[in-house]
Amino acid sequence: MEQSKIIIQYMPEITEDQLWDFYIRNDICEVGYGKETAVKPLKFPAYIVGAFYEDKLVGLIRAMFDGLSADIREFCLECELQGDNLKYNNGSVIEQDKYGIAGRMGNLLTEELRKLGNTFTVAYIVEGTEEDIYRSIGLKHNQGHAVYYRDERPYV
Question: In what order do the strands lie in the sheet with 69-77?
């Protein structure tokens, strides 16, 4: 894939087929999980930046935003565009940003959200792996905060 031909768009039209193909190609969800469930986020309001190679989705960052605070819910990059020797080899974990594509996507999203009044952004990351990419878009470790959650995803 020629990285110079990748187009990054704010609020692109992403089809269910493009998203499903990206997820399967990059081991982001299992085939058994079901396309109908996997593409649900496209049906709810979110702020999205997508990276495309020709008509193929190769990167995605998606945030929920309430006018002040943003929550990055998904940040994915085609494994082929991350680099070599990936530990997880899963597009939903950005281990490397060999061509700066994830950084460009993240910076575009945070700049657009800032224009809309965003003053606080949060993201859950894979500790020991994704710090560099999130720092590159201006986020930092929030010491002193604990995360509480309930996880009922069938594929975890």
Answer: 6-10, 47-53, 56-65, 69-77, 120-123
Distance, first Cα to last Cα, the chain? 30
Q: Are 129 and 97 in contact (CB under 8 A)?
A: no
Query: pLDDT tens digits, residue range 2-25?
Result: 888 999 999 999 999 999 999 988
Give the tens place of pLDDT for each residue, 22-78: 998 888 876 567 888 888 888 888 999 999 999 999 999 999 999 999 999 999 999
Class of domain 3-136: alpha beta
Domain chopping of the chain, boundaries: 3-136
Note the pTM of the prediction, 2 decimals: 0.88
Any idea which residue has 């190609």 for tokens?
25
Backbone angles phi, psi at 115, to 5 degrees: -60, -30
How many angstroms separate the CA atoms of 24 and 35, rounded?
10
